[in-house]
Write a structure and sequence with these properties.
Elements: H1 5-32, H2 37-62, H3 74-87, H4 95-115, H5 118-125, H6 138-163
């Protein structure tokens, strides 16, 4: 007579694995058969692209120095981002709104710090990611690094949202 007791544990593990795999496949199939999935994903992608484009426009606007540049109004920039966010809030994570406002404020702080140093203006306004060597005083460096870190955080979250 064959002793099945040593095979019981591996067979039970195999059965559990198969059940979990089948449940996962069922959920995946159900999710991908949803007729609203593709239009919603496309709308989410467009909302994310519009929000990122606006944030980068603000980034570039804050880099302009000189006589032809208008003073940057942080509250106007935050307001325009918030309006865009509200219009597309169905497709966006709510935590992004505060992060975007923080990003604009950090950009303003970095821009204001660099404006104090004549050496840093040209490279910053020419869209250099890092402040130039001559303007790397602690206040400037800290402000630029904080803005860059917040930008990277927002970008990662938006990219993850596109794939979701």
């Amino acid at each position: 007579m064959i002793d099945l007791q040593p095979l019981a544990a591996p067979l039970l593990a195999l059965l559990g694995t198969l059940v979990v795999a089948l449940l996962g496949f069922y959920q995946w199939r159900r999710q991908h058969s949803n007729p609203n999935r593709v239009p919603t994903a496309e709308a989410r992608r467009k909302a994310i692209e519009a929000l990122w484009t606006k944030a980068e426009e603000i980034n570039l606007a804050m880099r302009r120095f000189g006589k032809d540049a208008r003073p940057v109004d942080v509250s106007e920039n935050v307001k325009s981002l918030n309006e865009l966010f509200i219009r597309n809030s169905l497709y966006l994570d709510d935590s992004l709104q505060r992060k975007l406002a923080d990003y604009v404020e950090l950009l303003h702080k970095a821009s204001a710090r660099l404006a104090e140093y004549n050496e840093g203006r040209d490279e910053w306004s020419n869209t250099s990611i890092q402040p130039p060597e001559k303007a790397r005083q602690r206040k400037v460096w800290t402000a630029v690094e904080a803005a860059n870190a917040k930008r990277a955080e927002i970008k990662a979250k938006l990219l993850a949202s596109i794939d979701a």
